[in-house]
Design goal:
The chain is an alpha/beta fold. Helices cover 28% and strands 24% of the residues. Strands 4, 6, 7, 8, 9, 16 and 17 form a seven-stranded mixed beta sheet that branches.
């Protein structure tokens, strides 16, 4: 069981039926009745009862918290980001959807407040992040089971901790799992300003890889280019520049990439494929353009290009919790070595969630919005 709680309308004196509580594929997250001796407290949570526009269906409600059981852990949430997958989940357009009503948020960092008598791996004061999606991190406090959490070092920056469990993990796995790249090899990616894109730049630099980073043109393109290069990007080009014949000059001193990372689809992904080295791989992990990936027959036949997909949730299922914990610790080592920082972030108090949700769906985002509790 991941949490023990019931949802309350902010102006409703009685709790909603326990059967309406969030469930995550039943084996992960289920509702539970309260102990007769529980001393519940009221905390705040961002809840949606229907799929739709996040700015309209998400509400700040009161959540009644049960007492800590033997294998339970009470956690005070510190910060939780708003990711594209969170938005998609609320809209009903994601690969995994919780039963409704549900608490929003799949990522974040919290601090252990109390532990049950059977808990051995965590203690009050420890920092923890979710081990799987669907935990519901947009809340001030919750009671979770021990296996739903992963302990992380408490000496890393708060924003790095809050954004550790999704984007950097995706970036690392794509860089190491699909092509056996060596220092000096190059990688090309689109959506380079995204959370994953910024993590790719930094992790690639730590691995000795060179990056060609494609972004959409915008009024502040020079400022964006400077920021990405400060992270370790070697080349930053716009979608329009990538289509021009002059781009071939870029590859005079950079080897043709054997790995392309696609988060856009449509024409952007087609351009990535055109610049891949023979036998190279394009990994798709998002579809921001909401257009299909189109590959010409000639590229597939004469260049033997490979098209793959990546979804972190599936990777976790395939590799298990211990492997995911090792991945998290690897990324924490990079943070300690100043080789990985959080993406540009804007912290927003939980009560200002409507503003944060609206801003997170705007085009040309310059920063990730993080809810602080």
């Amino acid at each position: 069981m991941w949490f023990r709680c019931s949802l309350l309308g902010a102006r409703t004196p009685a709790p909603l039926p326990l059967g309406l509580l969030t469930s995550w594929h039943r084996h992960c997250c289920a509702a539970s009745s309260y102990s007769a001796f529980a001393d519940p407290s009221r905390v705040r949570a961002l809840v949606y009862g229907n799929h739709g526009d996040p700015a309209k269906v998400v509400e700040l409600k009161n959540l009644e918290l049960a007492a800590v059981g033997g294998s339970d852990i009470r956690v005070r949430m510190l910060a939780a980001p708003i990711n594209p997958s969170d938005i998609n989940m609320i809209q009903g357009n994601y690969g995994l959807l919780p039963k409704l009503p549900a608490v929003g948020g799949n990522e974040g960092v919290g601090q252990v407040v109390a532990v049950g008598s059977s808990v051995t791996g965590l203690k009050p004061g420890d920092w923890v992040i979710p081990s799987n999606p669907g935990l519901g991190t947009w809340r001030t406090e919750a009671v979770f089971s021990e296996e739903a959490l992963i302990k992380i070092p408490s000496d890393i920056p708060l924003q790095s901790a809050a954004t550790l469990g999704v984007n950097p993990c995706t970036a690392y796995r794509m860089l190491v799992d699909f092509e056996q790249l060596q220092p000096g090899d190059s990688v090309i990616q689109n959506a380079s300003n995204s959370g994953v894109g910024q993590a790719v730049i930094q992790i690639a630099a730590a691995l000795g890889l060179r990056t060609i980073n494609v972004v959409r043109d915008r009024p502040d393109i020079k400022k964006l280019t400077s920021r990405l290069k400060d992270l370790g990007a070697e080349h930053v080009v716009t979608e329009e520049e990538l289509r021009k014949p002059e781009v071939k000059n870029l590859f005079k001193d950079v080897p043709q990439p054997r790995l392309a990372l696609n988060c856009v689809g449509g024409k952007s992904s087609t351009e990535l494929l055109r610049h891949l080295a023979p036998g190279g791989t394009m990994v798709t992990y998002g579809g921001m353009a909401k257009q299909p990936v189109t590959a010409s027959v000639s590229l597939l036949i004469f260049k033997d290009l490979k098209l793959r997909g990546f979804w972190l949730s599936q990777w976790k299922k395939n590799h298990g919790p211990d492997e995911f914990k090792r991945l998290i610790l690897t990324l924490c080592d990079l943070i300690h070595q100043d080789q990985l920082t959080a993406p540009a972030c804007t912290e927003v108090p939980l009560q200002d969630y409507r503003r944060a949700l609206g801003a997170s769906m705007e085009p040309f985002l310059s920063s990730k919005h993080i809810l602080t509790m």
